[in-house]
Amino acid sequence: MIRKQFVRWILVSTCAATAVAACGAGAQTTETGSAGTNVGGSTAASMSTSSEGIGGTSTGAGSNALASSGAGGVPGPACPGPKLADPAKLGLKACPTYVCQDGGGHCVPNALVGADVAGFLEKCNKDSLCVPDPFIETQGNFLLTTCTAVMGYEGRCLSTCIPMVQARDAVLKQDLCADSELCVPCYDPVKNVSTGVCDLTCDMPKQPKPLPLPTCCGNRGTCVQAAIVPDGAAAKLGVDSCPKDGSVCAPNELIDDKQNGTICQPSAILLALGVDTGVCVADCVPAVKGLGNGSCPAGYNCAPCDVFGANTGACGPDW
């Protein structure tokens, strides 16, 4: 049975917020004094001209992560900026391997990370969060490496220290990214909306927005490349009216979070077998054909959450 949620992408608000979280002040001068390595004239521990730290703003030049950008995203003269700080020399500990398996991040005290974005970063421990190194090194004045993402889409290399990137390692490509990064597409291949990863600091997409993917299953599904369907679920999806180019028809309820999880009562036959709960899945999915629609509307069948105590995956892996 198909997993309830099998394709999710980094939303623009998440991706942008995560990067700004680790930006802090814009480009500043690096000083060395008796108090240790200073960034923008502040102590090494703050890594910012503001007491708010990472994710906060400063009152000096380069007051935020976008300070080096021109109007409308036109690159300013100092973007990307130079590496101003070495996280290790700042006394920051490397993120644990269970957070950053391939390295590339350091632990920053919670007090120095903006509260609005802390939830998008993984904890090093109860007192600190794991922040990708490029954000610390350049104080947010960075430019992500351009790469080729899934389905040939333009993308940017983003650290796997960010949980939402790490969770998609089965779908995202490595391409030319560093070992600690994966290539995140500029546009969500399924929803055809910006992911935000190509609009950070002074960056912008180099290629035009892709055309929307074809629909299928009577507009109840979307044709997606089998390569972006994780966990072997593509084999359980049909082609339907999709082009014969390696595409499969993915039901919208398994793609769009807003449509996920419509609980249903299975057909009488399944009820007689002790199956009492399921979710509505478009009936064009081969795996649910013949199950009956139960309490689902026309065009949908009720896929059971479990059969004889065994999780089918239709209602999620933790059912």
| Uncertain stretches of 5 or more adjacent residues | 1-77
What is the element string, with H for helices and E for strands?
HEEEEEHEEHEEEEEHEEEE
Strand content: 15-25%
Question: What does the largest sheet look like?
Answer: 3 strands, antiparallel
Give the CA-based shape: elongated
CA radius of gyration is: 23 Å
- Percent helix, as a range, is under 10%
Q: What is this structure, in a nutshell?
A:
This protein has 319 residues and is mainly beta. The chain is built from four helices and 16 strands.
How is this fold's topology laid out?
Layout lengths: L11 H10 L8 E4 L2 E4 L65 E5 L13 E3 L2 E5 H5 L8 E3 L5 E6 L3 H4 L14 E5 L29 E2 L4 E5 L21 E5 L11 E2 L3 H5 L5 E5 L17 E5 L1 E2 L2 E2 L8
Antiparallel strand pairs: 1-2, 3-5, 4-5, 6-7, 7-8, 9-10, 10-11, 12-13, 13-14, 15-16
Descriptive account of the structure:
It is a single chain. The protein is elongated, with a radius of gyration of 23 Å. It has 319 residues and is mainly beta. The relative contact order is 0.14. Strands 3-5-4 form a three-stranded antiparallel sheet. The chain has three domains: 212 residues, no CATH class; 43 residues; 50 residues, no CATH class. The chain is built from four helices and 16 strands. The protein starts with 11 loop residues before the first helix and ends in an 8-residue tail after the last strand.
